[in-house]
Amino acid sequence: MASREWDAYSSLNIMSRYSYGMTCVGTNRHGGRCGWSLEGRLYNDIRALLDTMEGRPPNEAIELLGELARLSLCTDWGRDWSRQGHQYQADEVISRWESAIMVAEKEYENRMGLRRGIHVVEENWGKVEAKTEELQAEIERLRVQLANEQVNVGNLKEEKAEYQQSLSQKAQTIERTTAEQDKLRAELVTLESQLSQEIDRATTEHVNLSTQVENLTRELDLESKASSKYQSDLLQTQTHRDTLAKEADNLRSQLDVERQKSSGLVLGLEQAETSRTTLSNEKRAIQSRLESKCQKFEELTAELSQLKTNQATHPIETEALRIELVSEHETSTRLHQELSTTKEDLSITELALKEAQASLKTYQRDNDKLQTEAADREKEYSDSITALTNQIDFFRSHPFKTFSTTLIDIFKRRAKVVTGFKRNARSSKRVVGANDPEVNCSA
Q: Does residue 81 surpass a pLDDT of 70?
């Protein structure tokens, strides 16, 4: 049986769906419904036609209204055979039914729209359920991942505790070596202070020299002529002074390099001293154990000698003591071997310590040598300045006073060079403090 698309029984108002009979749908002369009963096969045909109309949409069932009107209107009343009943009212009935079908069509369209909406909702609901299942699976996966992460966090906490314990041990080791580092740092600070004093003294001399040169420049501005011979001498002096300044910068660079090497040697010396102390402690411990074992060995030897006299009466005890004596002898031999190995390690450490001390002494000699060379360079530079000053005094006392304007410009450039040298000296002082590894360590 086809699905019912709409309710033709109630919409057309022909009969009840559950009735067992019907009357003609025509209108009598009193304005009411005709009471002529339609039964039997005709009634069954009308119900079958109504069921067929309900299987179609309302607008497609309109074509069956003519047949339905023919079957639903009476043909005669049995009294006057000349009349055809209410068949002439077919158009009126069909028009009334079409209006009813138009209403049913609107209801059908609303119902179909609702069905389509329900279908879309069902499809969306299926998608939501699928998405929900996916989210539940994702939540389960995240739960498992969270459990794994918690296990990893526990492992990390254990590793953190071990690492903190290791750091504590390292901190104790650093504290033990702090005293020696402070001592070496104090020595380096002393050397740095001496170097700073030397640089300050040189800076003061440069300032004084710069002032003198500026004064000489102002005096030379009053002169009108210059000698080409003296100009050449001054140019040579300037070149010589520039060379001396470059050599002084090179010596400072070498001093910085040697300072860094000294820091490395000091660290190596500290490590070697720590290793030597550890090996010395191990050596004393092994010697103590060896002396104890030797004493026990001597006691066992004495007991063995005493037991040899009673060997005939105590064979079992003698054998046990002999085995114990052999064991102690093996232990003593092993301790001797460990002591020999420890002595070799200690000898190697002492040699490394001696080499480090020798390297440190070599560095100190090189440092003293560099300081001496720097002092010699400073002295030579001062002598050159003095000679230059003497030449200037000679120029001023010259009877002809023929200094050129070019000579004045040379002295002005010379003053700028001296001022630049003073700035370089101050910058070198700051760089030495910044590159010192011990200073950075203390900071």
A: no
Mean pLDDT of 155-175: 84
**Exposed, middle or buried by CB within 10 Å (0-12, 13-18, 19+), for 388?**
buried
- Collect contacts of 227-235 with beta carbons under 8 A, ≥24 apart: 227/395, 227/402, 227/403, 227/404, 227/407, 228/404, 230/391, 230/395, 230/403, 230/407, 231/404, 231/406, 231/407, 231/410, 233/391, 234/388, 234/391, 234/407, 234/410, 234/411, 234/414, 235/410
Angle at 286 between CA 281 and CA 292, to 5 degrees: 130
Q: Per-residue pLDDT for 83 more than 60?
A: no
CA 76 vs CA 24, 79, 81, 90, 409: distances in Å: 11, 8, 7, 14, 148
Highest mean pLDDT among 24-38, 245-259, 291-305, 374-388: 24-38
Report how far residue 284's alpha carbon sits from residue 286's, in angstroms, rounded to the nearest whole number.
5
The sign of the dihedral angle between the CA atoms of 230, 233, 237, 238 is positive
Q: Give the pLDDT of residue 377.
A: 80
Q: What is the pLDDT of residue 437?
A: 41
The tally of CA atoms less than 13 A away on the side-chain side of residue 171 is: 6
Q: From 241, 228, 234, 202, select the one nearest 216 (Cα to Cα).
A: 234
CA distance 404 to 395: 11
Query: What does residue 307 show for φ and ψ, rounded to 5 degrees?
Result: -75, -25
